[in-house]
Amino acid sequence: AVERTLSIIKPDAVAKNVIGEIITRFEKAGLKVVEARMQQLTREEAEGFYAVHKERPFFNDLVGFMISGPVFIQVLEGENAIQKNRDLMGATDPKKAEPGTIRADFADSIDANAVHGSDAPETAAVEIAYFFGK
Ligand code: CMP
Q1: pLDDT at position 129, please?
Q2: What's the distance, Cα to Cα, between the start and end of the chain in Å?
Q3: According to the model, what pLDDT value does residue 77 have?
Q4: Ligand 1 center to residue 12 CA distance, Å?
Q5: CB of 7 sitting under 6 A from ligand 1
Q6: What is the pLDDT of residue 134?
Q7: CA 101 – CA 97 distance, rounded (Å)
Q8: What's the pTM value of the predicted model, to 2 decimals?
Q9: Ligand 1 centroid, distance to 116 Cα (angstroms)
Q10: Does 92 appear as a known binding residue?
Q11: b/e string for 57-73 if b means 16 or more Cβ within 10 A?
Q12: Burial class for 36, CB neighbours closer than 10 Å (0-12, 13-18, 19+)
C-alpha cells in the first residue's frame, strides 16, 4: 500500500553536508518527498517528539544531540514507505548497520546516527502530525 513516513536527517548528517545524498537514496528507492522543512528544534520540541523514550537512560543525551544543530524533517511517500525507509537507513547502531545503508555510510554512533524514521504506521501518523499537522 502507499504509505507516508516521517524522516529526520539529524544534526550530524546536516553538518556533514549530506542532505542531498540522503534524499537521493530515498528518491532512487521510489520514495517521494511530499513535505520538508529545515528546523532548529527546541529542547521542548525534541523531548515531545521522543516522549516514548523519556524513561530510557539515553533520553537526555538523545535530546541534547537532537538540538545541537538544525535538522531536516521530511514526509516520504511511496509503496511500503515505512519499511522501505527502515531498510535504507539500516540498524539504529551504525556498527550493526548493513553495508550500503545510510547509517553504515554516514553515521558515527548510536546517537549521531544520521537519520530517524518512523517504525510503524501508528507512529508514522503521530510523528507526521507532530511536525506537519493533519
Ligand atoms: P531514533 O530512530 O531517532 O530513535 C531514538 C534514538 O535514540 C535512536 O534513533 C538513537 O539515535 C538513540 N539511541 C541512543 N541509544 C539508544 C539505544 N540503546 N537504543 C535505541 N536507541 C538509542
Answers
A1: 98
A2: 20
A3: 98
A4: 14
A5: no
A6: 76
A7: 7
A8: 0.97
A9: 9
A10: yes
A11: eebeebbebbbbeebbb
A12: middle
